[in-house]
Amino acid sequence: MTEMIHDEMRLLYRDMVLLRRLDSEAVALCRQGELGLWAPSLGQEAAQIGAAHAMRRGDFAFPTYREHGVVWHRGVDVIDMMRIFRGLSNGGWDPAKHGVAPYTIVIGDQCPHAVGYAMGIQRDGTDDAVIAFFGDGATSEGDVHEAMVFASVFEAPVVFFCQNNQWAISEPVNRQAVVPIVDRAAGYGMPGVLVDGNDVLAVLAVTREALQRARDGGGPTLIEATTYRMGAHTTSDDPTRYRDSAVTEEWAGRDPIKRLLEQLQAEGAADAEFLAEVEDESEKLATHIRTEVRAMEKGHPLTMFEHAHGHHHEGSHSERLAFGEYLESFETVDEDGLA
C-alpha cells in the first residue's frame, strides 16, 4: 500500500515539474516573439495537477485560460495548446475526445456551460461528473452566481473549483470578497471546502471526495483552493507595479513542487535516479515545444475576421478592410533591418 501511495506521489511530482517547464518555456517563447500571449501558471501547479488527477476518463473539465496543467493532463497535445497562443487555432482540440472544453477567455463564462453539461449527464444516467475551474476574480461575475444557483437547485453533478490565487489582474482578493469565498457555498445550499492549494495531496483528496459526492447524486460542491499567482497575470502584465515583493517572496517559500519533493525524500521515495529522469523528461519537453513552435507558420492578423460571423456582415467586412489597409501601411524590413 505504501509503495502504491509513493507511486502516485511520484507521478504527481513529475506532472507538476513538467507543467512548470511547459509554462516557463511558453513564457520564454512569448518574450522572444514566438507566441502572442501566455497566462502563466507558476505557483498553481498543485491546484491544477491535484484536481486533474482526481478526475476519471469520462469526466469533463471546463478551464479558464490558465489551466494548462488540466488541459495537458487530459491528453491534449502541448503543441495544439501552443498553436492557440500563436494565433493559429480558434479552439485547439476536440473537447469530446479529451474531456476538456477549450480555454475560456471570458471571465466566468465557462461556469454556466459546466452546469448545463452536468445536467445533461443527469439525463444520460451516467455517473460521470464535471469540474468548472475559475479564479477569485470570477466570483464577482454574474455567470458564476447563476451557475451555482442552477447547480444547487437541480443537484447537478458539478464541482466548482476556485483557484484563489489572491489577484484578479491587479485587484487583490480582499476587494473581491469581505468573507472567505468558500463561505458563499452555504448561501447556495451546497457544501464548501477550503483547501491548501499548494498541497497537491490535499487538493487530490478533497477533489476526489467532491467528485464522488457528485456521482452519488449529492449535487455540487464549492472548493476554494488557496494559492498564489507567482507570475504575471499574462505576459502583457507587470505585477511589480501593484504587488508587494515581500508577500510574493513569502509565498515562494510555500512552493508546491518543493513541498512534495521534501515529503518524498523524507519518506525515501525519491532517489537521484528518479529526479534525473524527471529532469531529463522536462528538458525533452521544453526542447520539443521550442522546436515545434519555432517551426510553425506565422499567423496573420486578418484571420481573426474569418469566423466572426456565419454569413456576410457589412460591419465586420468594413473593419477587415480598414485593418488590412493599416497593416499594409507598415514598411517591410529584411533581416538586416533595411526597408
CATH secondary-structure class of the largest domain: Alpha Beta
Query: H/E order of the elements?
Result: HHEHHHHEHEEEHEHEHHHH
- The helix-and-strand class reads alpha/beta
For the record, the CATH architecture of the largest domain stands as 3-Layer(aba) Sandwich
Number of helices: 13
According to DSSP, the number of beta strands is: 7
Average of per-residue pLDDT values: 95
Number of domain modules: 2
GO molecular function, one term: oxidoreductase activity, acting on the aldehyde or oxo group of donors, disulfide as acceptor
InterPro entries: Alpha-ketoacid_DH_E1_comp, DH_E1, PdhA/BkdA, THDP-binding
Keywords: Oxidoreductase
Characterization of the model:
- GO terms for molecular function: oxidoreductase activity, acting on the aldehyde or oxo group of donors, disulfide as acceptor.
- Pfam families: E1_dh (PF00676).
- Keywords: Oxidoreductase.
- Residues 14-291 form the Dehydrogenase E1 component domain.
- With 339 residues, the protein is α/β, with parallel strands linked by helices.
- The chain has two domains: 2-295, Thiamin diphosphate (ThDP)-binding fold, Pyr/PP domains (Rossmann fold, 3-Layer(aba) Sandwich), CATH 3.40.50.970; 301-339.
- 48% of the residues lie in helices and 9% in strands.
- It contains 13 helices and seven strands.
- The protein has helices spanning 2-31, 45-54, 68-73, 78-85, 95-98, 110-124, 142-153, 185-188, 200-215, 245-252, 256-266, 272-295, 314-328, and strands at residues 60-62, 130-135, 158-164, 167-168, 171-172, 192-196, 221-226.
- The strands form two sheets. A five-stranded parallel β-sheet has the order 1-2-3-7-6, with helices on both faces.
- Helix 1 crosses helix 2, helix 1 runs antiparallel to helix 11 and helix 1 runs parallel beside helix 12.
- The chain is globular.
- The model has no long low-confidence stretch (mean pLDDT 95).
